[in-house]
## 1
Amino acid sequence: MTIKKGDNIIVLAGKDKGKKSKIVRVFPKSGKVLVEAVNVVKKHQKKRKEGEKGQVVSRPMPIDVSNVLLFCAKCDKGSRAKASIVNSKKLRVCYKCSSEF
Ligand SMILES: [Zn+2]
């Protein structure tokens, strides 16, 4: 996967389509990513103790990595990354404008 934790991305599909956000976590084995404030589901948390109120907690669920695209600040849109070798270091750059992600 070319996407890493902390990357700025744009969502391509689902209920948060078009939303810009940030990668919180990557799951390389399942090909999924956890994105800040994207694909948020509400879950009812049952009361654990007597007298305590049950509450609704919202939390993001992982989405398929194919549903996000790295966001290029220079192009101001989502873009594919390509690998580029600069000073024998491997970098990820924008497919269109070649600026570094
Ligand atoms: Zn670009």
## 2
Amino acid sequence: MKFCTLSSGSGGNASFISDGTTSILVDCGINAKRVREALNCIGEDADALSGIIVTHEHADHVAGAGVAARAFDAPVFANLKTMEAMNRAKVLGKLPPEKLIVFQNNESFRVGSFVVKAFHTSHDAADPVGFTVESGGSKAAILTDTGYVTREALENVMGAGVVLLEANHDEEMLRRGRYPYVLKQRILSTRGHLCNEIAADMAVELIKSGTGSILLGHLSRENNLPEVALHAVLEKAGAAAEACGCRIIVAPEKIVSEVIEC
Ligand SMILES: [Zn+2]
Ligand SMILES: [Zn+2]
């Protein structure tokens, strides 16, 4: 299986997963043109996409989903509350009903050759989820936009070969930064975003479970830096990562990440 982010952070999130037969996007917060260009960069074809699976309705995850769904003739998958929230906000534009597919959380569903499962996260959205995507014995997981690591998230992502793990902010940078108080509280809350320290704790658990690659993502432009996030995580998880041969890298904000094989 191949995994990469096409873009990661508040400017727009989209991840690409392919097993050679099926390819999907997880979220599409960037426009269709950028998706096509990003996939071209890695020798993949946007027209071959089998679907766009959506974690939650925030614009940085779905702003480009409707246009991309039409451009690439790929259905949009979301749970009911997220689908309703997207419809209310009219973010998807006009799509035929058969292109809007509702899944149940905690129940595996198929997208082509992938078995996908959504698990609850804790975030200020209608019904936010993370995903595991499995094919041929390989598993990728996405855990971003969560105030803390829910028990469900922990259980699901364990053992994934590759994990996109949120390392949103450095708490000190956030507290001292220029964000308004209310926004700081929102980010720090249990329904906000994961800080570097918690990402580091989570990385330790993932390495113990056999994860081979951890991609730190959804970094805040204001309240984090790639080197700060990486340093925080390596401080706690670096020795274990080295011992187990786990790679820990940072997903760049606006360009395609390294393509990870798992
Ligand atoms: Zn969000
Ligand atoms: Zn987000």
